[in-house]
Structures are given as C-alpha cells and as structure tokens.
Design brief:
single chain, alpha+beta, four-stranded mixed sheet, about 30% helix, elongated
Length: about 70
C-alpha cells in the first residue's frame, strides 16, 4: 500500500477487522485434548504438550519423559 492509494485504506481496515474476528473465534474454540490416564499418548513423543487427564481431573504436561500434573 502506497500513501498515494488512500482510497484503499477503508477496504483494508474492513479486511483486517474481519480477519481479527476470525482469529479470535479460533482462539475461543481451541480446546486442550482430553485423555484418560491410560490413554495419554507417549510422553516422549509429546514433549511440551498439555492435556487434560479425565481420570484424575487434572491438567498434565509432558516433559518428554513423563506426564506430570501442572498444579
């Protein structure tokens, strides 16, 4: 966009607002995966992943070796 095209600014502003709304909607709908303790994927394959353990009702995180309660 060049400053010589000021008539395009309103269109760009509208497009940016629409994209922002789409991104915010995606963020609101993203959910942490849920697994029973026995069904958690291998910790080694999921380092830095967060999940919800439905057996213990706790959030867990993988350190690359084991799944650990986050709090």
């Amino acid at each position: 966009l060049r400053m010589s095209d000021p008539e395009r600014l309103p269109d760009l502003a509208t497009q940016i607002k629409a994209l922002r709304g789409q991104v915010e909607a995606l963020i609101r709908t993203k959910r942490i995966p849920q697994y029973a303790t026995a069904d958690l994927p291998p910790a080694a394959d999921n380092e830095a992943m967060i999940a919800y353990d439905t057996t213990t009702n706790k959030h867990v995180g993988s350190n690359g070796a084991t799944w650990n309660n986050l709090f």
